[in-house]
Amino acid sequence: MHAKIDELKKIRVGAVSYLNTKPLLYGVKRSAALMERTDLLEEYPSRIAQMLVDGTIDVGLVPVAVIPKLKEWHIVSDYCIGAVRPVASVCLFSEVPIEQVEKVLLDYQSRSSVNLAKILLKHHWKQAPVLEDGRQDYREHIKGTTAGVVIGDRALEQRKISPYVYDLAGEWISFTGLPFMFAAWVSNKPLPEDYLQLFNQANAVGLQHLDAVIAENPYDVYDLHTYYTQNIDYIVTEEKRQGLAKFLELLKTV
Ligand SMILES: C=C(O[C@@H]1C=C(C(=O)O)C=C[C@H]1O)C(=O)O
């Protein structure tokens, strides 16, 4: 037996640890053929982004805002975390209307949405509040004229707390007429074609079995069927690629 080192090495995959990613991971975790070749870890998005930049993972469901920081990148799957309508879990939360906001706290777990907020503030709302990186407890400080960008499961909770909820996917769509891609499966090196094919097929399984995914992840804060079918849009389309190109262009202005 003279298997090449590369064939023995497992592929290190980093995935987002939020509810939005459960449908994509459902089939991945159930595929024995895939799992025997995979080291899978789940973390919040800004950590996954850093790991792909540092090379501690080979492929990750990374915030697209990290793409310009990668020496080499390949979108390796037809599945992503995107939106063609309001997304529900990426919002600017506030106690006052946007025009009265003086400071915005930015989610430390995000890379795409915090930059999306900067782009929308500058070009869409034309507002220039002070921007501050949020610490672990920053949600407690979303009060008065201090607003906050929150993503993921914590945003679904924050919807019940803040009176003003600006959905950043909805705002992006009205601003550009294009859908948004928050995160995509991106590799920092070429990966074996047969592996990627299995991986892509496995991503589809949970989307075809949403009731099983929901049963496995009981959640009473927000209706997950609505979230998975009306809010998050999982398919990489030509329009989403156009949205991504527009986002990467505007990213240079903030
Ligand atoms: C829609 C979402 O998309 C996410 C937003 C990300 C970001 O802002 O960097 C990264 C990954 C996605 O999980 C969400 O988390 O609610």
From TrEMBL:
Belongs to the MqnA/MqnD family. MqnA subfamily. PANTHER family: CHORISMATE DEHYDRATASE. CDD domains: PBP2_Sco4506. Its EC number is 4.2.1.151. This is Chorismate dehydratase. Pathway: Quinol/quinone metabolism; menaquinone biosynthesis. GO terms for biological process: menaquinone biosynthetic process. InterPro entries: Menaquinone_biosynth, MqnA. Keywords: Lyase, Menaquinone biosynthesis. The keyword Membrane does not apply. It is an enzyme of class 4 (lyase). The gene is mqnA. Catalyzes the dehydration of chorismate into 3-[(1-carboxyvinyl)oxy]benzoate, a step in the biosynthesis of menaquinone (MK, vitamin K2). One of its GO terms (molecular function) is hydro-lyase activity. It catalyses: chorismate = 3-[(1-carboxyvinyl)-oxy]benzoate + H2O. The keyword Disulfide bond does not apply.
